[in-house]
Amino acid sequence: MTEKEQVLICEAKLTLAMKNGDVAMLDFLLDERLIFHIPSGQIITKEMDLENYRSGRMVVHQIFAEDPMVSIFGDVSIVSVVIHLQAEYSGLPVGGEFRYLRFWKKSKGNSWKVIGGSGIKIQ
Q1: Among candidates 60, 62, 63, which has minimal Cα distance to 52?
Q2: Ranges for the DUF4440 domain (predicted)?
Q3: CA distance 67 to 51
């Protein structure tokens, strides 16, 4: 399996974990040093993201990804993807089409972890 295929599988696992609120899988896929800019402009860490799912503050009703673009640079990968999302955050609806840019790094155990990224709403 190519590294690009490995990263695309990880992207699919991440999307499924978000949909199912699977905190254990999110914990596995997100690096401890994660820095992520969410569409509101807020910076979140891994623990903040996990707590949003753990507490039920973030509930995803529908999510699917399309048009992934992957570039590999040694042990780092950059993924650009369009995400269609219908969710609730703190009881308020969140939805629409978003462009996410994620940075994945291959760890010592040869698994890929998200180390950073950002998301913007597509108008």
Answers
A1: 60
A2: 10-114
A3: 29
User: Full-prediction pTM beyond 0.85?
Assistant: yes
How does pLDDT run across 48-65, given as a tens digit for each residue?
999 999 999 999 999 999
For residue 108, the 8-state DSSP code is T
pLDDT in tens, 60-83: 999 999 999 999 999 999 999 999
Domain 3-121 classified CATH 1.10.10.10?
A: no
Pairing, β 112-121 against β 92-106? antiparallel
Pairing state of beta strands 58-73 and 43-44? unpaired
**Would you state the structure tokens that stand for residue 12, as one six-digit string?**
């699919």
The per-residue DSSP string of 11-67 comes to: HHHHHHHHHHT-HHHHHHHEEEEEEEE-TTS-EE-HHHHHHHHHTTSEEEEEEEEEE
